[in-house]
Write the C-alpha cells for this entry.
Amino acid sequence: MNFTNPFCDADGDKLREECGVFGAIGAADASAVTALGLHALQHRGQEAAGICSFDGTEFFQRRGNGHVAENFSSQDAIAELPGTMAAGHVRYSTTGGAGLRNVQPLYADLASGGFSVAHNGNISNAATLRQALVEKGAIFQSTSDTEVIIHLVATSRYPTMIDRLIDALRMIEGAYSLVVMTPEGMIACRDPLGIRPLVMGRLGDATLFASESVAFDISGAEFLRQVEPGEIVRVDHDGNVESLRPFGTHRARPCIFEHVYFSRPDSIFDGRSVYAARKAIGAQLAIENPCDADLVVPVPDSGVPAAIGYAQQSGLPFELGIIRSHYVGRTFIQPSDGARNSGVKRKHNANRGLVEGKRIVLIDDSIVRGTTSLKIVEMMREAGASEVHFRVASPPTAHSCYYGVDTPERSKLLAARMDVEPMREFIQADSLAFVSIAGLYRAVGGIPRNDDAPQFCDACFTGDYPTRLTDLQGAQADDAQLSFGNGTARKNTVASTVS
Ligand code: AMP
C-alpha cells in the first residue's frame, strides 16, 4: 500500500496504545463513579485521561494529559461533568499521538446527535479504512484509530444508531472493547473474538462497564459478568438492558497477556482470578524449569504472584530481594533506551543484606527488550549474589502485538532476535528459562492449547494472529512469520511503517 500509516511514528515504531475504559449510566454522580473507576484502571494507561458526560440534553467533556488524579480529583473537575451518564478512558501512547486531540473519549456531533466513544484495543485495518474515508472527503481531527469508528458511523446509511454502529463494526478488524454514549443511552461492545476485556457491573440502579473488575471494587459496585465476545449491550436511561449478538458466534480468543502482565492481579479476567492464574503460571514454571538456589526473588511488582507460585511449588523461600520505589512509573513507558535504563535504577534497588552470597532465582512475568532483566541481574550481582538465575512466567515474546498491548516493533524484541542461550548471555544470567506455551495454557486455562483453534490470542508468543492485519500487508519485509485465524501459517511481511 502506498500511503503513510498514521499509526506509526517517525522511527517506524508503531503507535503504542494501552488503554482502559469505563462507563456508568443511571448514576446520580456518574462522573465521580467514572473517575474512581479510572483510578483503578490507571495501570492500563498513564499518559492521559478523559471523561465525557451527558445530562439529558448536552454532552460535556474534560480531557487532559497525565494521571487520573491530576485531572479528576477536584470537586470542580467533576462539577464540569454533570449528568447521570458518563464514560471515561485512560490512555498510554508514547509516540506521535500524544496530543490532546487523541485523548479519549472522542466526541462528535453527528446528524443523529452527540456520539462519544472510548476504545481499548487496536483496529488492525484502521489506516486502510481511514485512507478510503479521507479519499471520500472525511476530515480527521486526530491520529487515533478510534476516530475511524466515528466516521464509519457518521457515513453509514442505516436508519438507527445501533444499526449504524453495527454496520461500522462489521468493517473493522482487530481488537475493540468500546463504551459508546449517544443521547439514547450507553452501548458497550466487545469484538467478536473478545481479545480485549470488558466487564459489566451494577451500583444501585446504575449499570457500569469497565475494562477490568477492579474498577467496580473501588466504588463498591457489584461485578455482574463479562461482556461476551461479539456482544453488544445497550442500556437506556430507564435502566433497560438489551443484549445483541449481531456477529454470530466465533471462537473467542481473549488475550493471554492480560493474565500474564496487563490486568491487575485483583481482577477477574475471562472468568478467572488474575492472581490465581499468575501463581499457577509460576508453579508451572517451577515444574518445567526447577533451579538449585537459595531464594526465589520476584522482580516487583509484575513478577510477584508468579514468584509466590514458583516458591510454593519448589519449596524454596520467597524473599523480597529487590525493593521497588512506588513513586516511579512503569519502566517500560520511557521512550528512549537511556531513559529506560535509568528508570530501572530509580525504580528498583537490591536488598543487599538478603541477597549477598546467595544463589537467587529471579522471577519476572516477561522479557520484552531485555533492558529490565539485564539491569536487574547486574543489580543482584553488584549486591553480592553468588548466582543469578532468571525464570520467566511467559514464553519468549517474539512477536509484536497489534491488538492494544504495547510491544515495540519486532526488531526490538529480544526473543525475535535471538534464541534462549544468546538471551541468557545478553542478560548475563547464570541460567535462563521460560514457561512453555503448553504450560502457560495449562496454568491459565487448565486446558491444552488447541493448535488448530487456540483458545486465547497468544500472538505475541506464537505469531498466530487471530485476525487479518490488513494495514501491515504489503509493507516492507522483516521476515516475520505471521499466521491468521485457525493457525494457518503463511509467510507474510510485517513492518511497522507502511509507506
Ligand atoms: P524489557 O525491559 O523491555 O524486557 O521489559 C520487560 C519488563 O516490562 C517486564 O518487567 C514486564 O513486567 C514489563 N512489561 C512487559 N510488557 C509490558 C507492556 N506491554 N507494557 C509495559 N510493561 C511491560
